[in-house]
Amino acid sequence: MPTDNNLSQGNAGERAAVKDLGKDLDSCVADVETNRCHEVSEDSGHGYGDRATRDIGILELVSVGWSICNSWVGVLSTIAFVVNQGGPPTLLYGLPLIFIMYGCIVCSLGELASVYPSAGGQYHWTSILAPNSWGRVLSYSCGLINIFAWISIAAGVGIIIPQILTAPIIHYNPAYAPKTWHIFLIYQAGSAACLLHNIFALRRSMWFFNLIFGLSVATFFVATVTCLARAPSFQTHLSVWVTFVNRTGWESDGVVFLTGILSPGYMYAGLDGAIHLAEESKNPTTAVPRALLSTWIVGFLTSFVVAIACMYSAQDFDKVASTPTGFPIFELFRQAMRSDAASTVMLVIMLLAGFAALAGCQQTASRLTWAFARDRGLFGSSKLSHMDEKWLVPVWALCANAAVIFIIGCVYLGSSTAFNAFIGTGLILQLITFAFPAALLLLRRRLAQYLPESRKFKVPAVIGWIANAGTVGFTIIVTIFWCLPTVFPVAPSNMSKFAYLNILKD
């Protein structure tokens, strides 16, 4: 069995390519014998003096990861997208397909996380696996793409908060028409509140994510049972499982289905959240893979069950998609539960979940920015890589990300179409970062030099090959189809995926 010293000698070329970024890779490569990540000494000379405090247990890590994805809420929030993109069959057959494809991703990321637990995640693994001549370019590209992906996801979560707040107001007061600046101010207020939480209260309030995890699962059961028990009538089996609705203008139903599974794809938006908290986890080599697995499994089970319940109990899909409240899930619950009060209570719970998701996104994005700056990959790295000694969080990284999210919100004032186009890239960019290390593992033939046999999370060799290849193949396919316009012929107003949802208007 190779030793850590053998790894250092065997990877001398690969390490040299990344050392220019200032990273002491020896400090983060796993010890093969113990399969634990080395601590970085404060006098390493590579800017690693500011280290994170390892105080996040496995439950907190799972809860943060779940709070970011909140799979069943994410799927139902984008349900309007599939109404004309195949209808219920796209959603119900798309969910298992996405589950299988993301299973490949979870296996690929989980194995690497169990060997190289790092806040840098994908770009760090890319730097280790890439050939000498491409290491620096690939790792830097992966890191930047991942940062932009997380900022995009955070902005996308942030805009859901004003939608939730204004939906019941519009319903109870139809004369109210929210102005663009109303949405803008609520968006910025929510982002600012989560920023303050992440700076001043995070270390004392990790229990909040545990609460949201439990509340989300409990709400899932309530929503499922209530929809089925209160629905005045049910859709037929044929309309739910067979009838394919194509109102897009595309002639090929296959194209419509592949573009429509974007909605099921949001079941796992922000899946890698736990990865970037590895350096704050007490036992990252086992905790991170478990967090990924739990989010993957629980996310699918809750999403699939509640989707079936909602597809059967919804009374009018067209009204759900075109609801004047701007939040389709509210109209769906109203139709199924036959109660405005119950639907409003569901929105209140989702509002809490929305704040938790946004706080989790900011937390995760800041750790990625902090790690990338620690490797001197950003302007102002000396500030961005600083870990505040009092609050034990990367304050500068948090503020920098918040500033970018603020600017993106200003774009919404000018054009919601441009804003929607930006936040619509988050899921695709995230998938691209997953494909980087998966492709390089294939290139390296999954050798024990890179994936030690003693790693804590290990899948059979054949499954590993399939998972890595599946991750790359899935990313290529959906990147092509999820970038296609949802309506044909194409017009400026329908170029953005999210413009079609009709949930944000100029």
Automatic annotation (TrEMBL):
Indicate the secretion signal residues: none
GO molecular function annotations of the record = transmembrane transporter activity
Assigned GO CC terms? membrane
Q: Where in the cell is it found?
A: Membrane
Q: Which PANTHER family match?
A: AMINO-ACID PERMEASE BAT1, TRANSPORTER, PUTATIVE (EUROFUNG)-RELATED
Please identify the protein, giving its name as recorded: Amino acid permease/ SLC12A domain-containing protein
The organism named in the record is Hortaea werneckii
The record's listing under InterPro entries reads: AA/rel_permease1
The way it spans or sits in the membrane comes to: Multi-pass membrane protein
Reply yes or no: does the keyword Transmembrane apply.
yes
Q: Which residues form a coiled coil?
A: none
Q: TM spans, by residue?
A: 61-83, 95-116, 137-161, 181-200, 207-231, 291-314, 341-361, 391-415, 421-443, 463-488
User: Which keywords label this protein?
Assistant: Membrane, Transmembrane, Transmembrane helix, Transport
